[in-house]
Write a structure and sequence with these properties.
Helix content is 59%, strand content 14%. It has 733 residues and is of the alpha+beta class. It is elongated, with a radius of gyration of 34 Å.
C-alpha cells in the first residue's frame, strides 16, 4: 500500500509535465485495490464477529456487568496482540487480521470461564448467613485460582495445534505463518487478560451487583438446563448406546473422507483476469498485435469485463522474456452481478476459436503462484523428458489429446515450439588444428561477436547502463559477412571464420527446454469445476494407460496438486506430534493416562462436523480447510478439559462418581455453551464471506470450525459424561 502511494505521487509529478491529452490509466491493474478491499472485508468480519460475541454473552449472562467484563477481553487482547506483532516485526495485513478474526470468539473464552465461576461463587456466598460469608477479595481470588490450571492447559493446547503452520515451506508457509502467529499471540494475550484484568474487574464490579439477589438463573439458561438435564440423565442411564452411536458416527465420517476432493489453495477473488495468448513461434509482431486486439474485443464484449490492457512480447532481458508471438491481457472485472467461475468459463468458450493459438485464463496472483510451483502459468504441468526433440513433441501431442478428454481440465496446451530458419556454424576440426584454434576459443569468439560482451558502464545522472559491444545486425544475419569474421590464432595471426568452419542455412527448434541437463517439453492445464487432486490423478492414470513411452522417456507431474499433497502430508505428520503434545499436557494436568485418553474422544467428534462442513462447501480439502481442522481440534479438547476438571474437584470433595458427573456437567454447561457459541458465531461473518476478496483462506477455515464445533460441543456434553461414567471409575479421583 505504501509503495503504491509513492508510485502514485511520482506519477502525479510526471503527469503534470505530459503533453495535453496524454494521461496515465492507473486502474487497469492495481494490486493495492485488491489488498485494500480484502483488508476492509476482514475488518468488517472482525467487527461483526465481535458484535455477535457480545450479543451471545448478554443473552446467556443477562447481566450488563458480567457481559462488559467478559467483552472487554476482546479489545484488550487485540490491542496487546497488535503491540506484540509490531515488536516481532509483523505488519497488519489480510492474514494477520484473519488470524485475529478467527480468534475473536476465543478471546473471551478464558474471561467467560473466570467471570462465570466468580459470579456463581459470589451468588452461592450470598445464600449463606451474613456472619459466615467470606470477604469478596478472597472469594474472587479462590474462584479465579480454581479454574486457572484448566484454562492454562486449554489455552496452551489451542496454541500448540497451530505450531505445524510454522513448519510449512513454499507459498503456503509464507501465507499461513502470519495467520498462525497472529492467532497464537491473540490467544495468549487473552489468557494474560483473563488471569489479571478479568479477576480485578470482577472484584470491582460484581460483589455489589443487585443481580446477585436473583433467585434463579437467567431465563435462557433455565430452559437450556432443563432440556440438557433430561438428555444427560438418559445418556448416563444408557451410556453403552451413547458410545455405540458415537462409534458409528466416527465410522461414517471415516467412510466419507475418501470421497473428499483435494486441492492446494482456494481460488482468489482478485477482480482481475490475466489471459495468456500464445501463437506459433515466428509469428510477426503485426500479426500477434492483431490477434491480441481481437482477444481484447472479445473480452470487452462480456458484460463483466470493465477494461483491458495488453502486453505483446517482452524484452530479452525481462525476468520473463517472451517473443512477439505471446501476449498477456489484463481484464478488470465487475463481479457485483456475475460469478467468477461462470465468467471464466464463458471467456474460455469465447476464445476457444482463435486459430493457431493457445489461451490460458487465470488471475494475476494465481498465475504467479502456479509459475512458482510448476514453472508454467497453469495448475497442472506434465513435464515430459527424453533425448529426441521430435519424439518429445509427438508424445506431448498424445498427452495433450488425453488431457483434453479428462473432466475438469481446461486451457490444455503444449509448450509452443517450432522449427525456424537458422544459420549453423559447423567447425572444421582439421583446419582449426592447423591454425592452433581450439573449439572453446572459437565458441567464445563467436559468442562475443554475435551475443555481445559487457565492456563498460555508462552513467547518466543517477542511472547506470551496461555498454555491450557486438557486431552490427547486418554482420550477424548474412552468411558471407559471418564468414569474413576474423579469428585471432594463438600465433597472433588472423584468419577468416570461413577458413575454420562452414556457415550453412538450416532448420532448428526455436527453443529447447532442459531440466537437470535433460531435454523436456511441458503439457500444461488448468482445472475448473473439479478438485485439482482428482483431475491430476485421473490424468496420470489415463496417460499411463493410453500413452506408450519409449525407453528413455518419462513424465513428471508438478503444480498445485503436488504442492497440496506435500503440504497435506507435512501438516498431517506435524499434527500427530501436536496431538501427542496435547495428550501429554492432559496427562500432566489430570495425572491419569486413562482420563487423558478419554478426553481425546473430542477429536473424532469434532472431525465429524468438520468433514460434513467440507462437503457442504464443495467437498474439497485444501490448505485452508486443513488449518480449520487444526483450529477445531484445539477448541474441541478444551471443552472436555473444563468438564473433567470439575468432575475431579467434586470427587476430591467427597462426592460420588455419578453425582459428580451430573453436577459437574450442569455447572459447566453455561461456560461451555458460551465459549462454543462465541467461538462459533464470531466466525459466521467469515463463513458467510465465501467468495469475497480477503476471505479466501479464512472462509473455508471458518466453515470447518463451525461444523466441527457443532458436533463436538453437542456430543461432548453427552459422550464425555457417558465415557467418564463407564471407564473412569475410581481412578478419576
Amino acid at each position: 500500500m505504501e509503495l503504491t502511494e509513492r508510485i502514485d505521487a511520482e506519477l502525479n509529478e510526471i503527469e503534470a509535465e505530459l503533453p495535453a491529452g496524454v494521461a496515465f490509466e492507473r486502474s487497469v491493474f492495481r494490486q493495492a485495490d485488491f489488498i485494500s478491499l480484502a483488508v476492509d472485508n476482514v475488518i468488517e468480519a472482525l467487527r461483526d464477529g465481535a458484535l455477535l460475541v457480545v450479543a451471545v454473552l448478554l443473552l446467556f449472562l443477562w447481566n450488563l456487568r458480567t457481559t462488559a467484563i467478559s467483552a472487554l477481553a476482546i479489545p484488550l487482547s487485540l490491542a496487546l496482540a497488535v503491540i506484540v506483532l509490531r515488536l516481532l516485526g509483523g505488519t497488519i495485513n489480510t492474514m494477520t487480521l484473519g488470524g485475529m478474526a478467527i480468534a475473536i470468539g476465543a478471546l473471551v473464552d478464558d474471561a467467560i470461564i473466570v467471570v462465570e465461576n466468580v459470579y456463581r461463587r459470589l451468588r452461592e456466598e450470598r445464600r449463606r448467613p451474613p456472619e459466615r460469608r467470606r470477604r469478596p477479595l478472597a472469594l474472587v481470588r479462590d474462584a479465579a485460582r480454581e479454574i486457572r490450571n484448566p484454562i492454562l492447559s486449554a489455552t496452551l493446547i489451542i496454541s500448540i495445534v497451530f505450531v505445524p503452520l510454522f513448519f510449512l515451506s513454499g507459498v503456503e508457509g509464507r501465507m499461513l505463518r502470519p495467520l498462525g502467529l497472529a492467532y497464537i499471540v491473540s490467544i495468549l494475550s487473552s489468557l494474560l487478560v483473563a488471569v489479571t484484568v478479568t479477576p480485578a474487574l470482577c472484584h470491582m464490579l460484581l460483589p455489589g451487583d443487585r443481580a446477585m439477589d436473583r433467585p434463579r438463573e437467567p431465563w435462557l439458561m433455565r430452559g437450556i438446563e432443563r432440556a440438557y438435564g433430561r438428555v444427560l440423565d438418559g445418556a448416563l442411564r444408557r451410556s453403552g448406546a451413547v458410545l455405540g452411536g458415537a462409534a458409528l458416527l466416527l465410522v461414517g465420517t471415516l467412510a466419507l473422507v475418501p470421497l473428499l476432493g483435494r486441492g492446494f489453495l482456494p481460488e482468489f477473488q482478485e477482480g482481475t483476469l490475466t489471459i495468456s495468448v500464445v501463437s506459433l513461434p515466428g509469428t510477426s509482431l503485426v500479426e500477434s498485435d492483431a490477434t491480441g486486439a481481437r482477444v481484447e474485443r472479445q473480452l470487452l464484449a462480456h458484460p463483466a469485463v470493465v477494461s483491458t490492457s495488453r502486453r505483446t512480447g517482452r524484452a530479452e532481458l525481462d525476468e520473463h522474456a517472451q517473443g512477439a508471438n505471446a501476449s498477456e491481457v489484463d481484464a478488470r472485472l465487475d463481479l457485483s452481478e456475475h460469478d467468477l467461475e461462470e465468467v471464466m468459463a464463458a471467456l474460455r468458450d469465447d476464445l476457444a476459436g482463435l486459430p493457431g493459438t493457445s489461451v490460458t485464463v487465470g488471475q494475476p496472483i494465481g498465475h504467479r503462484i502456479d509459475h512458482m510451483l510448476s514453472g508454467t502459468r497453469a495448475a497442472i504441468a506434465a513435464n515430459l523428458f527424453g533425448p529426441d526433440l521430435q519424439q518429445l513433441r509427438d508424445i506431448a501431442g498424445e498427452i495433450e489429446t488425453v488431457a483434453g478428454t479428462v473432466e475438469g481440465l481446461v486451457d490444455v496446451s503444449v509448450e509452443r515450439q517450432a522449427d525456424i530458419p537458422q544459420l549453423q556454424i559447423r567447425a572444421d576440426r582439421r583446419a582449426m588444428a592447423r591454425h592452433g584454434v581450439t573449439p572453446a576459443e572459437m565458441a567464445a569468439a563467436v559468442d562475443v561477436a554475435f551475443q555481445g560482451e559487457e565492456v563498460s558502464l555508462i552513467r547518466e545522472g543517477d542511472r547506470a547502463f551496461d555498454l555491450v559491444v557486438r557486431y552490427a545486425d547486418e554482420h550477424r544475419t548474412d552468411p558471407e559477412a559471418i564468414g569474413r569474421t576474423l579469428m585471432t590464432t594463438p600465433a597472433g595471426t588472423t584468419v577468416p571464420l570461413s577458413q575454420l568452419a562452414s556457415i550453412v542455412p538450416s532448420i532448428g527448434p526455436n527453443t529447447i527446454s532442459r531440466e537437470n541437463v535433460q531435454r523436456k517439453i511441458v503439457v500444461s492445464a488448468n482445472v475448473a469445476r473439479r478438485d485439482v487432486g482428482g483431475a491430476a490423478e485421473e490424468l496420470q492414470a489415463r496417460v499411463a494407460a493410453e500413452v506408450e513411452l519409449p525407453p528413455g522417456y518419462y513424465v513428471q507431474y508438478g503444480g498445485q496438486f503436488e504442492s497440496g499433497r506435500e503440504a497435506t502430508r507435512r501438516i498431517t505428520l506435524l499434527s500427530l506430534f501436536s496431538i501427542a503434545a496435547i495428550f501429554l499436557i492432559m496427562l500432566r494436568a489430570f495425572g491419569s493416562a486413562r482420563i487423558a485418553a478419554l478426553l481425546m474422544v473430542n477429536l473424532p467428534l469434532a472431525l465429524a462436523g468438520g468433514v460434513l462442513a467440507v462437503l457442504l462447501i464443495g467437498g474439497t480439502v485444501n490448505i485452508a480447510t486443513l488449518v480449520g481442522f487444526i483450529t477445531l481440534f484445539g477448541i474441541a479438547v478444551r471443552n472436555g478439559i473444563l468438564l473433567v476438571s470439575r468432575y475431579q474437584d467434586l470427587r476430591a470433595a467427597g462426592a460420588g462418581l455419578a453425582p459428580s458427573i451430573r453436577r459437574g456437567s450442569m455447572e459447566r454447561l453455561s461456560p461451555i455453551l458460551m465459549t462454543a457459541l462465541t467461538a462459533g458465531l464470531a466466525l459466521v461473518p467469515l463463513a458467510l464471506g465465501i467468495g469475497e476478496p480477503g476471505k479466501e483462506i479464512q472462509a473455508p477455515l471458518a466453515v470447518v470450525v463451525l461444523g466441527g464445533l457443532f458436533t463436538s460441543t453437542t456430543l461432548n456434553m453427552v459422550v464425555v459424561p457417558a465415557l467418564f461414567l463407564r471407564f473412569a471409575g475410581d481412578r478419576a479421583g
